[in-house]
Amino acid sequence: MISLLELVKALTSDELRATLLSILTTLGFPVSSWHLGSVIRAMVSLFAAVLSPFTDLQVQIARSGFLDWAEELWLDLLAEQVFDTPRIKATFAVGSVTLSNAGGGSFPFLAQAFRVFNPTTKKVYRNTGPFTLNPLQVGLIVPVEAIEEGSASTSSAGTITSIETVLIGVTVINDAAVVGFDAETDVALRLRCRLKFASLSPAGARDAYEYLALTFALNGGVTITRTSGIFDSATGQSTLYVAGPSGPVSAPNVALIQAQIDRLVAPIGFDCTVASAVAKNVTITSQVWVYTSQNLLSGDVQAAVASQLASWAAALPIGGDFTSPGAGFVFVNTLVAQILKAVTVPGAGQQIHQVGMFTPLTDTAIAASEVVVLVGGATVVNQVTG
Q1: Peptide bond before residue 360 is cis, with ω within 30 degrees of 0
Q2: Could you give the CA distance from residue 204 to residue 198 in angstroms, rounded to a whole number?
Q3: What is the DSSP string of 144-171?
Q4: What is the pLDDT of residues 158-202, one digit of tens each?
Q5: pLDDT by residue (tens digit) across 299-331?
Q6: How large is the average pLDDT for residues 18-27?
Q7: Boundary-marking domain end, from 276, 301, 332
Q8: Please, what sign has the CA dihedral across residues 151, 157, 162, 166?
């Protein structure tokens, strides 16, 4: 079978110049007598250099009509116009921080007026709603969102510890990870486009449940990043597990998704129960080695490892990585690979050259209903001469 890439190919200016000279020879022009540097050869070379970028554009246009080959903005256009499935945009990291007031001050704030930050990554977060911290009040939970969108603003649990707004006697900490996501990748968008066909089926095809749950505009306005379905056509009873960026989903949000599933997807005579994935707490402690010649601060390395692991955990499927249906794990080798690539310098590659695991030491089994949530954990950084 001939692939599209074999049918359409962009030409470099050199390839185009050779083609033009060949055509001119066929037409009877005395190409062989044209000396290098002559005006006519220069004109052919100039024409080839101008025309070459248009061949690349032609290839992109040809590929834009095929789901497997369209990329970036061309894929956006195809997904929206043909599949009515817009790309999911980057999200601001969201979560909550806990405030404790050891002093006698009362601190009222309007929405977005209070700012905290991660002292290692320097990423800043602001409150999403108004609140008041009363004198001697402890354990006040304040919802926050990152100032910058995308995964770079992800902070693992316990790393947002500084207050930009000066408050005497007040401390802050985030008990759970605050996770942001980059825009949906081409691979993920292609998958949702294919799932879209199932969502149109009046028979309630299994992929339709997952498509609706993953699509913000259809599921009641809930940010869902992972789904896992257990479908039994013999009994008509199905369970759809859902998880968000930080893991389990709140009961009110599960209810929103359930209502939409019942209204838009589940056919008469069938039941699909929507349930939040259950948190599987995993603690990752490790040690890494870096060379002193790389001039890396230990705190920066620790923050990079924590951020890398948080982003990895936020994208890990419900049920973990699978070796076979129903058998999911967190593999130690996967953790090592994630830690190794936590610090990468363009042109120089990975800066962590060795990883040693403390916990877990063996692969961790994950049930089909469980979603991994990172709890605690630490990284010891060894600076060695080199």
Answers
A1: yes
A2: 8
A3: EEEEEESGGG-B-TT---EESS--TTEE
A4: 999 999 988 999 999 998 888 888 888 898 899 889 878 766 765
A5: 999 989 998 999 899 889 999 988 666 679 999
A6: 87
A7: 276
A8: positive
Among 276, 299, 314, the domain-final residue is 276
**pLDDT higher than 80, residue 6:** no
Higher pLDDT, 12 or 106: 106
Same structural domain for residues 142 and 206?
A: no
Q: 126 in a domain, yes or no?
A: yes
DSSP 73-136: HHHHHHHHHHH--PPPPP-EEEEEEEEEE-SS--EEE-TT--EEE-TTT--EEEESS-EEE-TT
Looking at residue 245, the DSSP 8-state letter turns out to be T
pTM of the full structure = 0.61
How many domains are contained in the chain? 4
CA distance 97 to 89: 25
Residue 70 lies in a domain: no
Residues 244 and 304 in one domain: no
Structure tokens at 337: 């690979």
Q: Is residue 131 a contact partner of residue 125, using CB atoms and an 8 Å limit? A: no
The rounded mean pLDDT for the chain is 88
pLDDT on residue 380? 95
Specify if 211 maps to a domain.
yes
The reply to whether 108 and 52 lie within a common domain is: no
pLDDT > 90: percent of the chain: 44
The owner of tokens 């609140």 is: 131
In sign, the C-alpha dihedral spanning 71, 73, 78, 84 is: positive
Shared-domain flag, residues 231 and 264: yes
Range of the domain at 302: 280-384
Residue 188 lies in a domain: no
